[in-house]
Write a structure and sequence with these properties.
Blueprint lengths: L1 H18 L4 E2 L2 H11 L3 E6 L5 H11 L2 H10 L1 E6 L8 H14 L6 E9 L5 E9 L5 H14 L17
Parallel strand pairs: 1-3, 2-3
Antiparallel strand pairs: 2-4, 4-5
Helix pairs in contact: 3-6, 4-6
């Protein structure tokens, strides 16, 4: 009986861990810090998660697949900027998302923007756009073929660690 219980507990843990593999940030400033630390560009997903049919389709066909998950972990920091109709959001998130929608000139959903970003001393965010896409028919392989060139062109430079000079051999 103990063995059955332990196996069941292990399987439940494995499934829940697998379902939580990807981290989607909703706070863009937090995502920027992680992006700069890990030297990965941002993937900004502008979505209407509870009403936009194409957004739901993109999620199902691409963003929730093992292929996308593997690629995203290695390549980008994920940011979800949601504009729901039925799901409650804090005023802070609504304000942030509306400002970003204006800044990027988002006219329709889904839109996926790739960008590098930094926060200056006054707290102002500066973005460098790398490209954008939306729904692409053909599943994860087709979508990733469109997205990959934006990520490859990102060339994230490491932050300086110290002011000491190193010798080259």
């Amino acid at each position: 009986m103990k063995k059955v219980f332990l196996i069941t507990l292990f399987l439940i843990g494995a499934v829940s861990t697998q379902a939580q593999e990807l981290k989607w940030y909703t706070d863009v400033k937090e995502a920027i810090k992680v992006s700069n630390k890990e030297k990965k560009p941002l993937l900004l997903f502008f979505t209407g998660s509870d009403w936009c049919g194409w957004c739901i389709r993109l999620q199902k066909e691409v963003l929730k697949t093992p292929e996308f998950s593997k690629w995203a972990k290695e390549s980008v920091i994920l940011v979800e900027l949601d504009y729901p109709r039925r799901t409650a959001q804090t005023e802070e998130i609504k304000k942030q998302n509306n400002e970003l929608q204006q800044a990027f000139g988002i006219q329709g959903f889904p839109t996926v923007y790739f960008a590098k970003a930094s926060v200056n001393k006054e707290g102002k965010v500066n973005f460098e756009g790398l490209g954008n896409t939306g729904y692409v028919a053909g599943g994860p392989t087709a979508w990733l073929a469109v997205a990959e060139p934006f990520v490859k062109n990102a060339k994230m430079t490491p932050e300086p660690k110290s002011k000491t000079k190193s010798k080259k051999a």
